[in-house]
Amino acid sequence: MRSAGFPEQQDESKAAPSDARQESGAQRDDRNLGELIQELRVVSLGVQVLFGFLLSLPFTVRFERLNSGQRGLYLTSLVLSAIATVLLLGPVAYHRMVFRQGMKEHLVRFANLMAILGLSAVGAAVLVALLLVIGYVAGAVAAGLITALMACVLVGLWFALPLGRRREGR
After folding, report:
1. How far apart are CA 57 and CA 64, in angstroms?
2. Is 104 exposed, middle or buried (0-12, 13-18, 19+ CB in 10 A)?
3. Which of 63, 125, 142, 146 could form a disulfide with 81 if both were Cys (CB 3.0 to 4.6 A apart)?
4. pTM of the predicted model as reported, rounded to 2 decimal places
5. CA-based torsion, 76, 82, 83, 84: positive or negative
6. Sign (positive/negative) of CA torsion 107, 109, 161, 50?
7. Which long-range contacts link 64-73 to residues 24+ away (Cβ below 8 Å)?
8. What is the SS3 string spanning 88-148?
9. pLDDT tens string 35-93
């Protein structure tokens, strides 16, 4: 079953040949959830710092100097940061709601989707914030070039490279 344009997830009950773990499905789900929670701890701190910074920006003196286009970029980055925060904290809330209901495998799959979408929102928020700040400091051409380069790096490292390795592993 394919969802939201993401590659079909491999059935983890059939361990890859290089995976010598001898674990039950419940143990695998526990390990997967633990790994995901650790990853979310790292990324949620970063998005919360970005979101906090963006929330404080309108209360600075220089904010008044932004033109309507720059304010649009600011609002876009702010909303994307809020979306990222909600998505990256979502697995914790979801876990609390289904705790001890025998739904851990479903939780892990749904939390994984929220994490991927949350990372996408973080990446977009960072790129929009970068476009805003570089445009303000160095002008539109520099902002466009640097942001495009950073978008290529972000998409390459966060999505293209892992998905390519995933295909090789099949």
Report:
1. 10
2. buried
3. 125
4. 0.79
5. positive
6. negative
7. 66/136, 70/132, 70/135, 70/136, 73/128, 73/129, 73/131, 73/132, 73/135
8. HHHHHHHHHHHCCCCCHHHHHHHHHHHHHHHHHHHHHHHHHHHHHHHHHHHCHHHHHHHHH
9. 888 888 888 888 989 999 899 989 998 898 999 999 999 999 999 999 999 999 988 88
